[in-house]
Amino acid sequence: MNKCFFIGKIISDIDFKFIVDSKKYYSISIFKIELNNKSIITVKGYNEVADFCYKSLTKNDFMALYGKLDSKMEISLQNIKLI
Question: N- or C-end of the chain: fewer Cβ atoms within 10 A?
Answer without folding.
Answer: C
